[in-house]
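Protocol step 4 of 5: obtain the predicted structure for the target chain.
Materials: sequence only (see below). No template structures provided, no constraints applied. The aim of this step is simply to have a reference model before the mutagenesis design in step 5. Sequence pasted as it appears in the construct record:
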Amino acid sequence: MFLTLQHPFTDLRWLLGPETGRLERPFWPLANPRSDFVRSSGRVTHRNRGGLREWAGEQVFSDASRALLFPDHLRDLSLGGARYYAKIHHALRRYYSNGQFARLEVGLRFNVWGYPSEANADVDKVSLLHSILELPIRACGKAPTAKTLGLVHAGDLLAEHFLFASTTRGVETQPWWFSAGSPAIVLDYCRGWGLQQLPLPPHTREVLDLPNVGIRLSHAWLKIKHQLCSTWIISRGREHGDEVRKLRMHLTRLHTERECLNTVLFQAKDTGKLEWVGNVERTEALQRYLNDALRVTERSERFGFDQSAMIDVAQRAHEIASEDLSLHEVRRQVAEKIVSHLRREQKAHTQIIALEGSKVTTTIFNGPVNTGGGDINVITAETINNSFNKVQASQASSDLKEALKEAITQVVELAKKLPQEQAQTVLKDLDAFTGEATSAKPRKAWYELSAKGILDAAKTVAALAGPVTTAVTAVLALLAG
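Step 4 output (structure tokens):
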């Protein structure tokens, strides 16, 4: 199995000007492998198999072996438990940049030994993944003394390191000039492995099937302590290795592009640190960036892969901004790009898998609807997801959609308070209710029957009887009107 973990970074110094003291060499993405190096990191070198013509900067990288230090005797370590564990037999550390954003990429090739227990297979698999991703590494920020922390948690410290390494000595830097985004994982395995032995996250979502090249792509969200990690799983045959490599590169680069875009939007709207309103040169540079970045992330198909499916999964609720942007001082073109992106982000829905003690929990985020925090298992979570998606995809009026979303929100809260069997029943009623309410010709007898089931269940939880009844009644009134 081959696992790639990336820490993406956004470098805003290209917008801020020479006062930031950014070094002129390496001149990304045109770094010179014969002479360039990144200070306190390593030399620039060619990628052996080359980059991709569609992405600038993928053909060269800097060795990052001095920036991130693995434990001694890495190949001798057993990660996981006594009877189900992984051993790493090859590792690499690379730093890529295009001048506006960058990423540190760690590749680990490993074998898995033993099998998870039958009683707690999901827990054992997630626990093994956590052990790999929390591999203790050492890294330096600005200080000369290295700190030890888990691999997946090293983003901020590595951002501090690369900001220091790429700045003229003596210049006082600001952390937001070069900042880390959320990490991402690509896990690539050959289908020759037995599925029982593979440390795959439970409840993954298949998003892409390419039978011509024997590739299936799935996605999951892992929560490792307080770190949320986007996880792509590539299942492949023994052939078409070049296609697998390209897909892996597209996934990592797309994640970096999106993280950078979110950071730029956040800094442009909420913090005021970019000081671009009224600055013609900076505004035009920002507009050019947004035009390029949104063209990349909004295309439904790119490089032979159905990117819209990947983006649909990769969307999540970034708290980067709300729609209260004051537009009177902003160039219309830039404002439209920002608002368009924010509206699309607010439609996100995700499923997060976390290991808490000996229990794997799943949290669903459906735009404003959060089904986490209660005893919601994956079956009921999927039912909620289906109900919400029916509303989103329907041709119902905006008033009915909003009323249904409020009803879903209240029923989710109700389900958290009910015994599991009763929760599943009320959520089935919710699924039937939303399905009938959003159909082309809603049948009164059917939606009233499912509404009655929801209202009867609400009577058993006094604190929620009122909110649930109000929300469901509002939907019934719109359907009757």
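Step 4 remarks: Residues 308-332 have pLDDT under 50 and may be disordered. DSSP finds twelve helices and 18 strands in the chain.
Proceed to step 5.
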